[in-house]
C-alpha cells in the first residue's frame, strides 16, 4: 500500500543553504556556519561572497574556534 505523499509547500523554500558547499552533505540550516568572504579593495575583480558550510569542513579549514566560555569550562584558559 502506498501512502499519499503531499506536496509540502513549506519545503519550497528549501535552498542550497541546507547543504555544505564543500562536501555537499545535507545539513540543517541551524547547524551551518556562514562563511562571509570580503575581498580586499585591491582585488576589485572579486565579489563579496557568502557560503554555508558544515562544522567538519570549517574544522578542516582550520577556522573552527571555541568560545572563551567553552575554553574556560574545559580548563584550557
Ligand atoms: Zn562540509
UniProtKB/TrEMBL annotation:
<protein>
    <submittedName>
        <fullName>Uncharacterized protein</fullName>
    </submittedName>
</protein>
Amino acid at each position: 500500500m502506498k501512502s499519499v505523499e503531499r506536496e509540502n509547500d513549506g519545503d519550497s523554500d528549501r535552498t542550497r543553504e541546507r547543504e555544505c558547499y564543500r562536501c555537499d552533505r545535507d545539513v540543517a540550516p541551524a547547524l551551518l556556519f556562514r562563511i562571509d568572504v570580503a575581498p580586499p579593495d585591491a582585488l576589485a575583480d572579486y565579489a563579496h561572497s557568502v557560503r554555508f558550510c558544515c562544522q567538519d569542513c570549517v574544522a578542516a579549514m582550520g577556522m573552527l574556534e571555541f568560545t572563551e566560555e567553552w575554553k574556560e569550562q574545559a580548563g584550557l584558559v
